[in-house]
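Translate structure to sequence.
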């Protein structure tokens, strides 16, 4: 029991260090991407922090899977380098005896990965898409800057205002150019403001202005004076967020088993926690380090196997999405193949240890 507690403590300490390093890399890369989107105007600057949080939550299942694998691998490799494994084998304990403490540490982490992959990750993607729309779908009058032409994000309109009120709810001397039903409309108004209809629709209301309507290529045009003109802002929010398999809940995916894209996404969500458990077991035989040889060879081989495993899951997901394979035939063969490597690696490691001990 004392040994198991010590091993779990070392696993935990190593996992925390690995997770902090990987999480810092993840946050840095995602922050750079979001800042680049904010610089080009596709994301509002005030939305960067929230979107960064949603993005981090989405990538946590893969991050925890890699953390679990690396924590077990590094801990056992240190035991080889410090000759603690020599004491372990000299006590008559086989390498397979490590399976129990590794599973005791890995199973709670795998459960957390399953929760994140099946529930929280799609929720984060859905909330991220919803938050993007709430920020992007502001009224045209609050999006424009005084003295600058601004193309509206929700319609074929170009808006120019001379001045804004302090709370950006009122505009003065407005120019709006829009294309609707093949007609070019140009409006000029002394002022304007934003209104919300009882059903939730948004309108930009122009006051005391004039509208010119002309059909491109035709000499005919029409002039209309108005005291009040309401432009309906066709927000994406009113149409609902764009549903994709990635931001769809697992329950909804199960309701549409005939959709290959849904089944491909479900395959990935199920595959992440299963692969995390398999990799945790594979880390035991792959952690062997010869103290007299290089210390990085086993780490390179382990990362290569991780990359192959992950890529095979991605390939099977793509095949299911393309209809080349069914979900029932695609979700298990890769995991079974990697599990088949487990007894082979254990046998090879035990055989090499026995040969080494015999020569000594």
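Result:
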């Amino acid at each position: 029991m004392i040994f198991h507690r010590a091993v779990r403590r070392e696993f935990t300490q190593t996992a925390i260090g690995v997770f902090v390093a990987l999480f810092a890399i993840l946050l840095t890369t995602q922050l750079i991407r979001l800042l680049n989107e904010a610089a080009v105007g596709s994301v509002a600057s005030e939305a960067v922090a929230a979107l960064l949080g949603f993005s981090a939550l989405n990538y946590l299942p893969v991050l925890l899977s890699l953390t679990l694998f690396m924590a077990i691998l590094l801990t056992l490799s240190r035991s080889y380098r410090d000759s603690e494994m020599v004491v372990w084998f000299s006590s008559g304990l086989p390498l397979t005896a490590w399976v129990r403490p590794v599973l005791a540490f890995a199973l709670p982490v795998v459960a957390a990965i399953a929760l994140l992959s099946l529930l929280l990750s799609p929720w984060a993607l859905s909330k991220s898409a919803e938050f993007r729309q709430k920020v992007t779908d502001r009224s045209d009058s609050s999006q424009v800057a005084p003295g600058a032409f601004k193309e509206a994000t929700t319609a074929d309109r170009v808006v120019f205002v001379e001045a804004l009120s302090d709370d950006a709810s009122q505009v003065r001397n407005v120019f709006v150019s829009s294309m609707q039903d093949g007609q070019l409309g140009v409006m000029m108004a002394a002022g304007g403001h934003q209104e919300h209809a009882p059903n939730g629709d948004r309108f930009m209301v122009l006051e005391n202005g004039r509208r010119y309507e002309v059909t491109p290529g035709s000499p005919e045009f029409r002039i209309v004076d108005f005291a009040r003109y309401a432009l309906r802002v066709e927000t994406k929010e009113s149409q609902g967020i764009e549903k994709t398999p990635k931001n769809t809940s697992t329950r909804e995916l199960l309701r549409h088993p005939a959709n290959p894209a849904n089944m491909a996404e479900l395959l990935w969500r199920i595959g992440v926690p299963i692969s995390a458990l398999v990799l945790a077991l594979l880390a035991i035989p792959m952690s062997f380090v010869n103290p007299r040889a290089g210390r990085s060879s086993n780490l390179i081989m382990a990362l290569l196997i991780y990359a192959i495993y992950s890529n095979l899951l991605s390939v099977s997901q793509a095949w299911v999405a393309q209809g080349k394979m069914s979900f029932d035939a695609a979700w298990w063969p890769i995991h079974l193949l990697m599990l088949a490597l487990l007894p082979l690696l254990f046998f090879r490691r035990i055989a090499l240890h026995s040969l080494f001990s015999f020569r000594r």
